[in-house]
Specification:
The protein is mainly beta. It has one helix and twelve strands.
Length: about 240
């Protein structure tokens, strides 16, 4: 399922939820957070050729960002639906390493791959968010403890500096569409302030374009592609208003 299909499915789900639920006082939430991320090993392909670097290892990275959320509907006493805009950054870099190298599906053995220095800014649209309202009281009418889930499409803006194509360290910035999904737990300290912890998963295809000088003196463009699946664990503080 691509990002467009995910957006359509989530939008339909939100519309159904709104139609079947009852109003509750609108609540905005502003959040700041930080944590770490782990990107799974992935193949790196040179587009337009049959060259592949297999199972490239990516470094563990920091993750930091902020989110503005809006909770607008309640399902009886159970919980509420909402939406959010989430902006965060991380660095799924790959150091110089030895990997398996193939051309046309034929494995040519180990190859010393140069570093791929990558930094990503993500703009995620949580088109579907849902939370439970637990541990209710007079002070916390929507629950002091609020487990939640979210899903939606995201734009990933990635700057890549690649040592594998000569001249090395050419810089390229590309934007691609992917997806972000997460689940977390929000615990109120007061009615206005809370702490939260969250696991999130992101997926997108990273691309980087480089120019190489051919034997005839002309320039040839190459694009490297890799599917990045990243797991993030973050924690932060929320202000409810």
């Amino acid at each position: 399922m691509n990002a467009r299909h995910i957006l359509q499915t989530c939008s339909i789900a939100v519309c159904c939820a709104v139609a079947c639920s009852s109003p509750v006082q609108a609540e905005f939430v502003a959040e700041l957070y930080g944590g770490g991320s782990f990107t799974q090993n992935a193949d790196v392909d040179i587009d337009g050729t049959t060259i592949t670097f297999h199972r490239v290892k990516f470094n563990t990275s920091w993750t930091a960002g902020g989110r503005l959320g809006y909770w607008f509907r309640e399902i009886g006493e159970l919980g509420a639906f909402g939406m959010g805009l989430d902006v965060f950054a991380f660095q799924p870099e790959a150091e110089r390493q030895t990997v398996q190298f193939s051309i046309g599906g034929v494995n040519l053995g180990p190859f010393q791959m140069g570093a791929m220095n990558m930094s990503t800014i993500a703009i995620a649209f949580d088109v579907l968010r849902f939370r439970l309202h637990l541990a209710k009281s007079g002070e916390y009418q929507q629950g002091r403890i609020q487990p939640y889930v979210s899903v939606g499409p995201a734009l990933f803006i990635t700057k890549t500096s690649d040592e594998n194509i000569f001249p090395i360290n050419q810089s390229s910035t590309k934007t691609s569409v992917g997806v972000k999904a997460g689940a977390g737990l929000n615990v109120h300290l007061t009615a206005a302030w809370s702490l939260f912890g969250e696991y999130r998963f992101t997926h997108f295809t990273s691309e980087a374009t480089s120019m190489i000088t051919s034997f005839g003196g002309g320039l040839t463009e190459f694009t490297t592609k890799t599917d990045l699946n990243t797991h993030h664990v973050v924690g932060g503080i929320s202000f409810h208003f």
